[in-house]
Amino acid sequence: MWWTLLSVIAGVLILVLRFSTRRRRRNEPPLDEGWIPWLGHAIEFGKDAAKFLARMKEKHGDIFTVRVAGLRVTVLLDPHSFDSVLNDRDSFDFTRIRSQVIQKVFSLQPTNIEPTLERKWMEQHFQGCSLPKLSSSMNTHLQTLLLHCHNGSAPSEWKQEGLFDLCYSLLFRAGYLTFFERTDNAAVAYQEFRKFDNLLTKLARGSLRREERRTVSHSQERLWELLSPCGLRGGSESSTWQQSYCDFLQQEGINADMQKKALLLQLWTTQCNAGPAAFWLLGFLLTHPEAMEAVKSEIRGLSTRRDTSFQQPQNNPLEAHSTPVFDSILSETLRLTAAVMIRREVVQDKILDMANGKRYHLRRGDRVCLFPFLSPQMDPQIHQEPQTFKYDRFLNDDMTVKDEFYKDGKKLKYCSMPWGAGKNSCVGKEFAISTIKQFVFLALTHLDLEPCDPEAKLPPVNPSRYGFGMLQPDGDLQVRYRLKRT
Ligand code: HEM
User: Fold this and answer.
1) Which InterPro entries match (predicted)?
2) 104 annotated to bind ligand
3) How many domains does the chain have?
């Protein structure tokens, strides 16, 4: 009896192994299946994708295929060859992967909305004529929140807090008030959003524990409630970003239930990156005195100019002037801490031409993944001491912005890719840059801000967040702050 059972189990296992493993064909990228049937490298990938992919790059070079949870993912790490994927929309599709993730994380059913139509709507509402209005509203909210961040204690008293919490909460609330214009519940929305965001990577990978699943569901419900279109005020205020988005969805035939779920997706898309980016930028400044001095000196230079942009709160004085030091520090921050993964599905068999002349056959149904964090961003052939923060890395000797970098003697088209690329790159790039710079400017000019421990270092990154945009810290940097005496 036992022998029969054991032989059946062994037979099934052999069949699973036989049919779930694949052999590399001629002209295909090196194949690394891992030793766990079906799962392949999923566990290592989910734990620390950067470490895992760096190990694979060491072993196989700039292109290889790995098995991850039943899928074959071809990873391309040569920035000179990125365009072969980004420019071929017939062979590489993004829409299906996007809707799968959205369904899993935001419970949003695939809709019939034409992706290009939605993208166009986004561009209209985040860029061009809409941008100055959004930036001005964001600046006003940021100033108000920053000047009142003492929560009851006297503004001249030192207050202690984690820098990550401070940055994320201020930028989230200002963004929420700008886009969603609900003045009464920004703080509650932030609390729920953080709970949701903390578990988002596990939710996307399907690795939540039961208790965590309950927390996520509860936060989702609460956020859907807070964002519900029914709660919107109409009349004179119906021209808010949120109202326009709901009108757009309504016109496309999306029902109220899906509208509130789409609003949570937009809340996450618009709020999940700016806070963490501001944290890293301020954190690098607070732990690198020479960078802090350089940026403060640039700001001092601006404020001595006789113009009115400093007097009007809705203005962002940084926009009226060139700020190469500030820009270099932002680029360097994003180089070190933005870790986007650009994913595509291979929808027809494809011969991929690499920049070095090699050609590889990719199979239909596989995935392709670009991970610019490893190269160009952290590539030692491109950036000397890539792990080190150097505030002037993106500055030329004549103090102009440096945007020429080389690999193998060839100029790079993409020297850093924090905003993604191609069809699904960030629609809010200009808004995000203006917001982060304005926030840091306000923090430096309105607050006395310092690490509680002068010797403190920045916390390490949370390795499970590689591939989900801006990285987040594992821990926090404790800071103390008070309003500057004028
Ligand atoms: C440091 C800040 C930010 C970074 C690094 C960043 C980065 C990105 C990246 C990499 C993507 C592509 C995501 C993907 O592959 O699926 C993206 C998409 C997007 N971002 Fe940003 N983002 C930032 C801030 C913002 C802000 C403040 C807004 C809104 C005002 C915004 C609006 C969007 C939108 C709407 C999309 C979706 C585009 C589409 O689906 O076609 N982003 N962002």
Assistant:
1) Cyt_P450, Cyt_P450_CYP7A1-type, Cyt_P450_E_grp-IV, Cyt_P450_sf
2) yes
3) 2
